[in-house]
Amino acid sequence: MKKRFSFCMIIIGFSITSKAQISKMDTTQQSEKIVRELLQVVRSGKAPERAGEFMADTVIANQMNSEKLEAIKRTPQNYADHIRDFLNMYGPYTFHITELIANNNKVYTRWTQVGRHMADIDGHKATGLPLTEIGKWKDRRILDTIRSPGF
Predict the structure, then answer these.
(1) 137: pLDDT confidence band, cut at 50, 70 and 90?
(2) Using one digit for the tens of pLDDT, what is the confidence trace for 88-104?
(3) What radius of gyration, in Å, describes the C-alpha atoms of the chain?
(4) Strand ranges in 1-151 using DSSP code E only, listed in sequence order
(5) Is 117 helix (H, G, I), strand (E, B) or coil?
(6) Read out DSSP for 60-102?
(7) How far is residue 77's CA from residue 15's CA, in Å, rounded to a whole number?
(8) In which band, very low, low, confident or very high, does the pLDDT at 66 lie, cut at 50, 70 and 90?
(9) Domain locations in the chain as residue ranges
(10) H/E element holding 28?
(11) Percent over 70 (pLDDT), the chain
């Protein structure tokens, strides 16, 4: 009688990650978390007073106003006031992050903010009509905001 032998081969795969890769991943995750929380907590209008938890003492905000790039110095208090102004102009608004991409300490995000035209904006009287703003943020700078006015 012939003896049969079973042969079993087990292959184990290892993923070796260097300290540099772990550090980059941690930096990327940290950067994404900070920006996501800033947007969800502060920019959303839920808790503008918490801006200091996410921002440096002074930040240069590069914003497009009437197709002209403008650099504005923002402090956490100034940014919180800016968001309160939004609440005054838009009323309670919805805020959605539509895209967020992080790589190391660089973050790109886009958002949509929808409210109503509740106060005068740039000389336009309040209409109560829907008002939508779409914004982009890259590397700690607000690059662009597009406002679809309700006037």
Answers:
(1) low
(2) 988 999 999 999 888 88
(3) 24
(4) 59-65, 68-74, 94-103, 106-116, 130-138, 141-148
(5) coil
(6) EEEEEETTEEEEEEE-HHHHHHHHHHHHHHH-S-EEEEEEEEE
(7) 45
(8) low
(9) 29-148
(10) helix 19-37
(11) 70
* Residue whose tokens read 């300290």: 19
State the amino acid at position 119 in one-letter form: A
CATH 3.10.450.50 assigned to domain 29-148? The reply is yes
- The token pair at 138 is 């890259």
Task: Measure Cα distances from 46 to 40, 41, 49, 50, 93 in Å.
Answer: 8, 6, 9, 9, 10
Residue % of the chain over a pLDDT of 90: 25
- Which two three-digit tokens encode residue 57? 């003492």
Q: Which residue has the higher pLDDT, 32 or 7?
A: 32
Q: In the structure encoding, which two tokens stand for residue 77, read together?
A: 């208090």
- Which residues, listed in sequence order, are joined to residue 68 by a DSSP beta bridge? 65
Q: Which residue has the tokens 């939004």?
A: 86
pTM: 0.73
